[in-house]
Design a protein that fits this description.
With about 90 residues, this protein is mainly alpha-helical. The chain contains 3 helices and 2 strands; from the N terminus they run αββαα.
């Protein structure tokens, strides 16, 4: 069954239209440039996730967690044995 994506969440991203967005880090205020291409990709990703069934979302989350754990373990291995990567 096809469902229309709910873009209410993603709509807030498109209101900026690529204008610099003020951000605050470490007490300093500066602006970061927003990429129109990145915004479109973000909206497309949001729309795509809303088309998934709950089971598909759970499987995607599981795969994400497994990949993140692999990255974490690779970093741990590098920190514990830097000579092995040289």
């Amino acid at each position: 069954m096809d469902r229309a994506p709910d873009l209410r969440f993603g709509a807030q991203f498109s209101l900026n239209h690529g204008a610099p967005r003020p951000t605050i880090r470490s007490g300093l205020q500066f602006t970061s440039m927003q990429s129109k291409l990145a915004q479109e990709a973000r909206l497309a990703a949001i729309a795509a996730t809303q088309l998934l069934t709950p089971e598909e979302r759970l499987n995607a989350f599981l795969e994400h967690c497994q990949l993140m754990m692999e990255l974490h373990e690779a970093g741990e291995n590098l920190r514990n044995n830097p000579a092995a990567c040289a």
